[in-house]
Amino acid sequence: MDIIKAPRGVRDVLPDESWKWAYVVETARKVADAFGYDEVHLPIFEHTELFSRGIGDSTDVVEKEMYTFKDRSGRSLTLRPELTASMVRCYLEHGMSKRVQPVKLWSVGPMFRYERPQKGRYRQFWQLDVEALGSGAPEVDLEIVTFAVYLFGTLGLSNLEVVVNSVGCPACRPVYREALKEYVGSNYDELCKTCQNRFERNPLRILDCKNEHCREIMKESPGMVGYLCDECSEHFQKVKEGMSLLGISYKEDKNLVRGLDYYTKTAFEVLSGELGAQNAVCGGGRYDNLAEAIGGPHVPGVGFAAGIERIVLTMEGQGCDFGRKPGIDVFVAIADDSARKAGLKLLYDIRRDKVSADMDYSGKSLSSQLKMASNKKAKLACILGSAEIQKGVVTVKDLASGLQEEVHQNSLMNHIKQYIVR
Ligand code: ATP
Ligand code: MG
């Protein structure tokens, strides 16, 4: 029988990588604190309608990428492909409009999309999601962009490009849509099949096509900016002025649209040169019509989602620092069997003092235990034998220099802690 492997497009995050993830999430947590965002944990699956209505039926995500299944009672459920719709659902369900607005939330966890797996693109991937709900003020858009930029800066990322656009609102977008259709119509035959399909259903998404030829055609297409209503135009202006005020450099891209129907006004992405085709580390924008789309009252919102895998890939590519790799500081080694019980106790004492420690349980020779200590990259070995126990000492060996000394049991913890510079 073949060994069962993980399904295509999902991956195990092993210890040599997971600590880097932890660093990214811890850093995000600190930035969230600084910006006044509270963490929430949301369900991994939701009613399918939440996504089909909230993201939009004619988007890639809903049309082709969702993991949808019936549960045992026949309800249609979907593994979340993103978090924004769930965040808004959570806000509505818990009556958060009664709180001080905007309500500022963040979350991190796995998302699921049936996509063609490749570097930086998986079927289960992690997103960091940051949302501000209940305010339409352009300063909140600015705050969200600033959050992303500051987070990536804190992580040590460089050469990132912030790209912004406005996708307008239901008042001004229909006029643009027609102008776009007129332009696209004259190039219809040259578009890819998918875009020909998009032409009637959601022509704005043609702007988002990854096909080179479609991109080429769309280079000369009219931009939404020329069609914005006064309100959207003023809003966009204020966001851009804010970015200039805060020293955030950005590029305007008339063809930047989010793949999701609920976005209004600001759309932005942060791009990295390191990632090739999968170059977006983060995408976000305003979605003033999402709450209504899922059956709630009008609740404006703005937020972004960043892919953890892509952040880590970019950081690795740029040689960024991930902080301290977790590892054992102290290895307790037993010189002879009579010291085994004392060794177990010492190990537990060291651990309770919050120093990372380990030992061998398989009865290896002292020299094998010391090899194991080096393998685990321990800094110190605490060697215990009958001689040490008699004298009330521990032989402490510096595994880098090989130097060793006897340290009295009473001062052992102080000695260890002085040694281990964290
Ligand atoms: P793309 O254009 O790369 O498909 P998207 O527009 O579908 O991205 P969003 O829905 O905005 O992406 O998700 C936000 C972020 O989540 C992306 O910028 C990316 O970092 C990450 N992301 C999206 N899909 C995947 C995936 N399949 N695997 C890994 N990360 C992903
Ligand atoms: Mg996508």
Account of the 3D structure:
This protein is α+β, with helices and mostly antiparallel strands and about 425 residues long. It has two domains: about 15-170 and about 230-315, 2-Layer Sandwich (BirA Bifunctional Protein, domain 2), CATH 3.30.930; about 330-415, Anticodon-binding domain (Rossmann fold), CATH 3.40.50. It is about 35% helix and about 20% strand. The chain has 15 helices and 16 strands. The chain has helices spanning about 15-35, 50-55, 60-65, 85-95, 140-155, 175-185, 195-200, 210-220, 230-245, 290-295, 310-315, 340-350, 365-375, 385-390, 410-420; strands at about 40, 45, 65-70, 75-80, 105-110, 125-135, 160-165, 250, 265-270, 280-285, 300-305, 330-335, 355-360, 380-385, 395-400, 405-410. Strands 1-5-6-11-10-9-7-8 form an eight-stranded mixed beta sheet. The protein has a five-stranded mixed beta sheet with strand order 13-12-14-15-16, with helices on both faces. A three-stranded antiparallel beta sheet has the order 2-4-3. Helix 1 (about 15-35) crosses helix 11 and helix 5 runs parallel beside helix 9. The radius of gyration is 28 Å and the shape is elongated. The model has no long low-confidence stretch (mean pLDDT about 95). The structure holds adenosine-5'-triphosphate (ATP) and magnesium ion.
